Write the structure tokens for this entry.
Amino acid sequence: MTVDQSNPEKTQPHVPHQVHRGWFSRKSRARRLARRLAILGLLLAAVVAGGFLWFADAVTSQKAPDGVKADAIVVLTGGYLRIEQALGLLRDGAGQRLLISGAHPSTTPNQIRKATQASKDLFACCVDIGYEALDTIGNANEISRWIHDHSYRSVLVVTNNYHMPRSLHELRMADPATEFIPYPVINADLSRRAWFTEPDTLRTMLSEYLKVVLATVRDTFGLGRGSGLRTEDDLPRPEAPAPAR
């Protein structure tokens, strides 16, 4: 390399200056990216929070309709209060027949009847019990089969108010041709309580809202939803008759 002694400035390398400027450029790009991610995070948080407020308002403002009628009634298990409400609707003629969906395989019809103090004649004539559903998706699939077996077109859906949005979503995904009419079971009037200060209630609402969001995302992007049904191996086998003596 030849050095021009007459002009020392020409011998000064410019690489450090270029690296220094490039470092600032990378730092600037990183800051812009961080700023965009922060804005995106804030927008996402706002959407999630707004969605939860909408969900909470929808749940707390639900009311059981008066004088409603449909071809049939379904109740998603999760407490005997739900079943009692559904049996009351059946007794009052709100539907022709009732399906109790998602019963545990070890639960007998007689146990349900006694726990709800239902009429033997009503139970014998017009109540079916589904044992296959493991979750809400399973409820929807079990109910859809039952609806088509009986050729019903409109169905009253009985479940807790906080569980109703997700139940209707899964039912309409499984059977879009049927009209599902919500009949929420309201354990307490949340519209007149500061429920957001109650840890258990707030936890339940947040959990249900998250499940609704995940179900919506799943179906929007066509992800697998499974059947939510027990297999034959999961169901109890009938006991063999005792040998004659």
